[in-house]
């Protein structure tokens, strides 16, 4: 009985599994939203990334959340260090709930 | 069956990383000798001519200007920035 319970997950995994970085790769060319560990966010078109999740972006807006409000900075091309990247979100998949 | 699946996934993953390293390498090539803005994790911004950059984002710049809260603080002729402090490197496209 216990062996039957254990077997289904192993048979399922090879067909359905997708690596995290493959998911990011599918976003190449589209607008993404990146949240950093600190109060910073970036929105831009994903051009590339590497295994450290250093991210190469085009037509970027940097949002910096400060106590005085959100500061926006526009940048054309950036190579963002992956060290402080927390969240990478495909832009049109966002549903904001109040 | 199980032996085949991991090999195919790893192969596609390898191809992906080589492409992406290319993208990064192209960015470095695009930027060198041109004015860039480098922002550090502590919020300090450096503007100058990019001389050299490596995979760790260690950077050597010329005619560097140090900005703190958008205000020019210091100028340096040559400067080296250790990569771990770098938040991003930003460049303008050619006109």
TrEMBL record, chain A:
Belongs to the snRNP Sm proteins family. One of its GO terms (cellular component) is U4/U6 x U5 tri-snRNP complex. GO terms for biological process: mRNA splicing, via spliceosome. It comes from the Eukaryota. The keyword NAD does not apply. PANTHER family: U6 SNRNA-ASSOCIATED PROTEIN, U6 SNRNA-ASSOCIATED SM-LIKE PROTEIN LSM5. It comes from Cavenderia fasciculata. Keywords: Acetylation, mRNA processing, mRNA splicing, Nucleus, Ribonucleoprotein, RNA-binding, Spliceosome. Its main location: nucleus. InterPro entries: LSm5, LSM_dom_sf, Sm, Sm_dom_euk/arc. This is U6 snRNA-associated Sm-like protein LSm5.
Automatic annotation (TrEMBL), chain B:
One of its GO terms (cellular component) is sno(s)RNA-containing ribonucleoprotein complex. The gene is lsm6. Its main location: cytoplasm. PANTHER family: SMALL NUCLEAR RIBONUCLEOPROTEIN F SNRNP-F (PTHR11021), U6 SNRNA-ASSOCIATED SM-LIKE PROTEIN LSM6 (PTHR11021:SF1). Keywords: Cytoplasm, mRNA processing, mRNA splicing, Nucleus, Ribonucleoprotein, RNA-binding, rRNA processing, Spliceosome, tRNA processing. Belongs to the snRNP Sm proteins family. SmF/LSm6 subfamily. This is LSM domain-containing protein. It is found in: Cytoplasm; Nucleus. It holds the Pfam family LSM. InterPro entries: Lsm6/sSmF (IPR016487), LSM_dom_sf (IPR010920), Sm (IPR047575), Sm_dom_euk/arc (IPR001163). Residues 23-95 form the Sm domain. The lineage of its organism: Eukaryota, Amoebozoa, Evosea, Eumycetozoa, Dictyostelia. GO terms for molecular function: RNA binding. SUPFAM superfamilies: Sm-like ribonucleoproteins. One of its GO terms (biological process) is tRNA processing.
């Amino acid at each position: 009985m216990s062996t039957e319970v254990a077997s289904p997950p192993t048979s399922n995994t090879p067909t359905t599994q997708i690596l995290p970085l493959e998911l990011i790769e599918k976003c190449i060319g589209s607008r993404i939203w990146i949240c950093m560990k600190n109060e910073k966010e970036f929105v831009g078109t994903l051009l590339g990334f590497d295994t450290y999740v250093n991210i190469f972006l085009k037509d970027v807006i940097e949002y910096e959340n400060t106590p005085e409000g959100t500061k926006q900075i526009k940048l054309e091309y950036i190579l963002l260090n992956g060290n402080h990247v927390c969240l990478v979100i495909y832009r049109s998949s966002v549903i904001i709930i109040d | 069956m199980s032996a085949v699946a991991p090999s195919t996934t790893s192969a596609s993953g390898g191809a992906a990383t080589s492409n992406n390293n290319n993208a990064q390498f192209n960015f470095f090539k695009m930027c060198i000798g041109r004015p860039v803005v480098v922002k550090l994790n502590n919020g300090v911004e450096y503007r100058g001519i990019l001389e050299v950059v490596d995979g760790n984002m260690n950077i050597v710049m010329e005619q560097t200007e140090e900005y703190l809260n958008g205000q020019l603080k210091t100028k340096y002729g040559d400067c080296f920035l250790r990569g771990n402090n770098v938040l991003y490197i930003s460049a303008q496209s050619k006109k």
